[in-house]
Protein: DNA-directed DNA polymerase
Organism: Sumerlaea chitinivorans
Amino acid sequence: MGLALDKAAIIQLLERIAFLLEYQGANPFKVRAFANAARALQNRPESLEELVSPGKLEEIEGIGKSIAGVIREAANTGTCKEYEELRQQAPEGFDELIKIPNLGPKKLRALVENLGIRTIADLENACREGRVAKLPGFGLKSEEKLLAGIEQIKRFAGQWLYAEALDYALRIRDTLERLPAAIAVAPAGSLRRCKEIVRDLDFVVASETPEEVIQAFVTHNAVVRILSQGTTKASVLLQNGMQADLRVVDQESFAAALQYFTGSKEHNTKLRGRARKMGYRLNEYGLFETSSSSSEDEPADPLAGRRLSLASEEELYGALGLQYIDPELREDMGEIEAAEEGKLPALVRLEDYRGVLHCHSTWSDGRTSIAELAEAAMVEWKWEYLAICDHSQVATYANGVKIEDLRRQHAEIDAINRKLQPRGFQVLKGCECDILADGSLDYPDEVLKAMELVVVSVHSRFQMSEEEMTERLIRAIRHPYADILGHVSGRLLLARDAYAVDYQRIFEVAAEWGTIIEINGDPNRLDLDWRLCKRAKEMGIKFAVNPDAHSREGLANVKYGINVARKGWLEPADVVNCLPLEEFKSLIHKLRKRKLEKLK
Ligand SMILES: [Zn+2]
Ligand SMILES: [Zn+2]
């Protein structure tokens, strides 16, 4: 039996209970108990299914008996009495209001009591009228900050990170797949195309009995509201506010419907144009022969004409004289032209991936030890090597490793390697070295030289002019021991914009000096942007797909990074993580040698 919430949702629920208790002025011990329980859950590697098994939660330090009950109730029903009661007494716009940065429970209380704030719109008005600044404990500065926070929320409303959307999509897909009435089930839309930001979910299901499928969809435990429900389609609102649409079709239409609802719009427009020129009409029901080639308009009956029998999307593209186009590529970036010539790339796959680079351990701000990360990389993921790249000394906010501690870290890695090398696995000594404001690196050359892999990244001073930032990155790229340029744009999706930088120049210099460009798989980053990968590849750049993991679970970020690489037209030969260990090492060696020679 599936659970109604996932682990992240349970953690969020506990945090919200803590917030609401504090908002109500409840006993601080009770507030802390819920906050601690949320943190305790976050630090457990087990799945939620394991955690809610009898007696398990009670063994965890920081989770008492009554909170264990709350967690089980929420896991099974999707919510809990404690939260629902507290929520009743909070302002109606609470779910939005708590997303505003720097707005804690006590401040929210003051705003509600003194200014009658109910929603984010109320708060925005009050700020604009200067009423918030006059409240005791607020002031002009905090008014400005609240306004900026509201702006940000409004800007990103209706958008979700790919990883969050995927979680919901898989839960719904699994339910639909279990239905005997469902012949085929597929998530479509931008999620299937692996877009970094998703606005809604689309599902296409083939079935002879659509009512049964629709009923299962609208009653799914992730659904909070039905927006519309018909005989072949339905729309619902999910727990996180995202909309999901379902379309049920007959089996003959499935391939065409899946193609149609996968998009993108631009790709489909081109494909329909191509079909028309070949004497066909392509729509969500299928590919039809047209009687007269002159009529470009859709006939009144979308099923008019002889329908070609197409068992799959492969057959659909084939009927149009094209190679099969992977969903990730359907963005009208030249894929139809390439498919026509049979020149589509053989996209990199997770199975091609051999070595994981750029992971943080407990030596800096990671939550998992080096030994545990290595074990997971080797046993769970079947990878051959893993580079530990903890933060460098200037990164005090992330507990950066001091030079005098590196010796001990390296000794620890040597000891782990003595155990793992006989099993065909190796941990590499690396670092994520900060690029300082002037483009120099945060460790001296002799320290970097001793590293088997150096990722260089910007973590501070984002507000520079484009010229300054470009020069800063170029200086770093040319550094003889800067092997990989990490998260190039610095963006945090739905939170922080990329800094201004001249990508053309960056790619030119990286290509000239051989510096590898990172595709950071952290779902909040997905940086380098896929739109830039194809151009960089054409300029001769190699890429490293890195999880930037800060925990054992974070290793799974590789999957998101591979999505970006695929979307960016990359093949295994473009991705250095696909190299066997010895070849990877010799690549880094050659790269450094080449740079040192250029610098002479
Ligand atoms: Zn970083
Ligand atoms: Zn990192």
